[in-house]
Design brief:
mainly alpha, Four Helix Bundle (Hemerythrin (Met), subunit A), two-stranded antiparallel sheet, globular
Amino acid sequence: MAEHGVSRTVVREAISQLQTRGLVITKHGVGSFVSDTPDFDSHPNSSASLEEVLAVIELRISIEVEAAGFAAQRRNPQHLVCMQNALNILADPTISRDVAAAADREFHRQIAMATDNRYFVDITDHLGIDLIPRKRLNSAALNGGDRIEYGLRLHREHQAIYQSIAEGDLSAAQAAMHLHLSNIRERLRHATFR
């Protein structure tokens, strides 16, 4: 970070892209290492089909709803600060799609961290930026809306998740995460059948 004068978010995004390409393997609590043999041939700049993105959303629903519940029970003040920092970035409707995707990913990664279960973090890190549909697809355009309105809608959903986790409400956190991911899935499905 110091050598290149960049933020932690930029470094995480770079590591995430290297992970997605199978060039770096991250072991929670140990570090990131160059992979001997890349094992994942998806490239973040490749064109992703809507079906692939929907499949990732389904996987996320099965994992992140539970993660939100655990995060509500186990989060500490530092997790909440990191989540809020990501939300502060997402609150700016003028940020670029890349910056929004990085902040979005960081928000979800902090929820995984708050579970205090390294496997939630590992799966989040393995999915990397593919976790975030707006990085792989122009989600706002697919939904026929403008980017600013789409970003504000996502921010409201993220805020509800954060609030439930901050309040330690397991059921509300799970419900808010389920609603958020289901809304993304339905918006993308709706775009498919236009």
